[in-house]
Structure formats: structure tokens, C-alpha cells
Amino acid sequence: MSVPLILISNDDGIQAAGLRALCEAMLTLGEVFVMAPEVERSAAGHAITLSDPLRVNEVDLGLPEVRAYSCSGTPADCVKLAILAVLPRRPDLVVSGINHGSNTGINVIYSGTISAATEGTILGVPSAAFSVDCWESPDFDPSKAVAQQVAREILEQGLPDGTILNVNIPNLPAEQLPPGLLDGQGYILTVHGKSDWQDQFDRRVDPQNRVYYWLAGRRRERKEPANTDEQTLRSGQVSITPLHYDLTHHRYLSDLAGWKLFQK
Amino acid sequence: MSVPLILISNDDGIQAAGLRALCEAMLTLGEVFVMAPEVERSAAGHAITLSDPLRVNEVDLGLPEVRAYSCSGTPADCVKLAILAVLPRRPDLVVSGINHGSNTGINVIYSGTISAATEGTILGVPSAAFSVDCWESPDFDPSKAVAQQVAREILEQGLPDGTILNVNIPNLPAEQLPPGLLDGQGYILTVHGKSDWQDQFDRRVDPQNRVYYWLAGRRRERKEPANTDEQTLRSGQVSITPLHYDLTHHRYLSDLAGWKLFQK
């Protein structure tokens, strides 16, 4: 196999420390291209840009082996544009992150980090999202080592069509992580949980006397099984959840078939 | 039961003809509030606004019984803000649409119409999305009748937690729709299919000699089972798919458990 081509994106934007950390981790595995939003696009969901043109600028990340571009669009735009119009060939892997903050439970639905990886998968490239459980300035060294192990295994094993790996890493020093992680063992296979937020809006009045609202809220503690993404992360372990984007609620199909609507 | 309170949103924006059609349809079933994006937000995915304040303005839709607001945010923002900060009480139903254009297959992932309904479900309110298979100016009368039948059944039966109904309506005159539809029968229960787009980017040069890209593409015909959303719509029938947002790829969990990463 020739040297793998690895495309990196994120939703924290081209200047994020976590993006740089992911570049450094991936350089040990292959050739690295970056296409990331020029500004932060957290909670971008799976938005794409239809009504505006997209701009691309080459950026110097201070890593001579990395070719990096910023894009005016969303995380999903970045990955779509890179694969379809900018990269010299089809990438072997798309990785997104390392996100500043976890992507577990309901956050997965809103996350631009996940959507970048999902777009890679939609375009047929094995893809993974990496997040570290810290909104401020984490030490990215342990997460880099984790990303390397996971990415190496994906490059070796491949992923079935339509599958994204969602990796969440606790914000712990390397010596407090479970033993074996940095040798590629001891990761925890999880399911997408239901942890969510107690949302509220702050209603304020601006200097022109007009009302505006800020989204505010705090994480709600939910009782849920130990094998969920959030509970695994809470226990200090690295959670890996296989996600897909077949949204059919299969378990409910037979109940629903009894509705009058579906009678002939 | 008191008169149901119905919240309406969309991604085509507050001025869309499909939004007005959905208001007219819902007025026969309950009290109607609207909170919709002030501009078009198609393909907004499940984006929410974290870094900017949200503005709300009351709008006269020319329907005296409808209280309507436009919002500076995304479809998901509209529903979240309406339910948590603006509505006089918790709604009994959230409906989104009627979207100009179908939301089947991969479009479901990108759709702001779906995300408005998903947000309703996340907040614990039964929710449905309605789309008609026409990007231009459909006759909304048949779709209005369909939306009424489906909404009435949801109000009567309820929906299990975490379930969204995704309704796609062919762009046909009432007399060409399957018999029984307007009496609330003959709808087709479907699964979320894989129909998608052959995407490409048009690379252009602006008058300042700078490069920009437009997303372009056309629908790809895929062979897929007859019980998918897209194939059902193609056959001239109304497709109803129950969606959820548990993204776990359950079928792949056991395969993945064999990876070295998950060994102790």
C-alpha cells in the first residue's frame, strides 16, 4: 500500500490547537491534508452551503509536511469540497477534531465535528471523529496518542459503508489513562447515549432597547446504562461508538403499522 | 382535551408559501403559533446558534388566528426558542414545512425541515416534517389535506419518545393521489433510504480574479427496495418514515468488538 492520504477537518476552526494536535498525530501514519472552517463552526450540525459560493485559502500551520486550507463553509462543506475538488486523490481516511469538548449523547446531533466525519463516510471514505472532554485548554498529548492508535486500526481494518467511529477521550494525564491504551488496547465499545442539556434562554435587552436571547444551559445528569458514550467517558475511559446515518426507527415500525393511516 | 397548541416551523423561511399552507391546514386542528427563520435556511442540518444572540420579530402572515414570529437563527433554534422562551405553554405538536422539495434518503441528513421536527422531539413534543416533491411552486392543496390527516392521527395516538414522522408527498393533483388518502387511509409506511446526489463543485473566478466554488449536483438513481422513502414517493404515494436520533450502528457492534482496540 502506498502512503495513506489523510484528510483532517474540525468545527473549532483552522486555528484550533486540537486541529494541530491531530495533524501531528496523523503525520506518523501518512500524508496529511487539512481543510477546516476559517472560523469556529461549533454546533453546525450537518449544515451545508447551497446559497453562497465557498472560498478556500491556503494557510501556513507551521507544519512543513502539512498542506492546509481554510474554507468559508461548514465542517461538512470542508470535507465535501476537499474530496471532490481540492485533494490530489481520494483520501484513505477522514478524521475530525480533536474537538475541544466531548461529543456524547445529544451533542452528537448538533456537532460539527461529527458532521465532518459523517460527510467523509457519505462520500465513501472511512471516517472518525475525536473529542477530548475539556472545553478549555487540554493537554493534547494523550489524545494524540489515542487518535494515532485508532486511526492506525481503521487504516488496517477498514470500516463498513456508512459507519463513523465517534471517539471520546477523558481529559486525563497519560499515566491516569487505563493501561494498554497507548499500545492500542483497552478501549471501550459503547452505544450512543441520551445525555443532554437543561437548556434555557437568557432574555436580555440591548443598548438600543431591543430584546435578544442567548442560549444557555447546563448538562443534565441522566441515569443511563454504563455502556453509553457519556458514562464511559465519566468513568475515565476512552469511548468508541460506531455511528451510522440510517435514521429509521426500526423498532417502532410494527407498532406504527397498526395506525389507521396505513390501512388500505 | 383543551384545544391543542401547534407550533409550526420550516427551513424555507417565514415568507414561504409552504409555511402558510401548513398554517391553514393546522388551523382546523388547534391553536397555531409560528416561529420560522427570517431567511431561507435550507440544508441547515441540525445547526444551533451558540456564539450569537437570537432576535425575534412578530410577523403578520395575513392569517388573523395565527401568531407568527421570525427568528434570526436556524430551524432548530426556532423550535428551541419557541418552546423554551416564547410560547404561552408547552405545544402538543410541532410540525415543520411544508418543504418545497422532498426530504428522502441522504437529504434527510442535511435537511433543516427535519431538524426543526427533531428539535421538537428532543424537547419531548410529538413532531413531524412535511415535504412536497416539487422545488418550484407546487399546488399545496393536496399536501395540506395530507398534513391535516397525519397531524390529527399524531394528536390522537401520540408518538413514542424520540420519534419523528417524516412525511413526503408527491406533487400530484388530488384526483391522482391514491384513493382514501384524504379520508386518512392508504399512506405507505417506509424506511429511510439511501438515495443521494452526484455532487460536484463548479470552480469559477470572480471579477477580482479570486477563485470560488459552487456546490452543484444531480440526484443519483440508486437501486433500492420499494419500501424506501424515495421509491415510495417515486411511485406516486405518500411516504411516512418513523425516524429517531439514536445513531448507534447496532448491527456493527459485534464485528467491531473483535478489533484489537477493544481487547483488555
Structure, described:
- Chain A is an alpha/beta fold and 264 residues long.
- Chain A has one domain (5-194, 225-262): Survival protein SurE-like phosphatase/nucleotidase (Stationary-phase Survival Protein Sure Homolog, Chain: A), CATH 3.40.1210.
- Chain A has seven helices and eleven strands.
- Chain A has helices spanning 17-26, 75-86, 107-110, 112-122, 141-157, 229-234, 253-256, and strands at 5-9, 31-37, 56-59, 67-71, 93-100, 127-132, 164-169, 188-189, 196-205, 211-220, 239-243.
- Chain A has a nine-stranded mixed beta sheet, with helices on both faces. Chain A has a two-stranded antiparallel ribbon with strand order 9-10.
- The first copy, chain A, is globular, with a radius of gyration of 19 Å.
- The mean pLDDT of chain A is 94.
- The interface between A and B is large, with 79 and 79 residues.
A few lines on this structure:
Two copies of one chain form a homodimer. Chain A has 264 residues and is an alpha/beta fold. In chain A, 24% of the residues lie in helices and 26% in strands.
Q: What is the secondary structure topology, with strand pairs?
A:
The structure is a homodimer of 264-residue chains.
Chain A: E1 5-9, H1 17-26, E2 31-37, E3 56-59, E4 67-71, H2 75-86, E5 93-100, H3 107-110, H4 112-122, E6 127-132, H5 141-157, E7 164-169, E8 188-189, E9 196-205, E10 211-220, H6 229-234, E11 239-243, H7 253-256
Helix pairs in contact in A: 1-5, 2-4
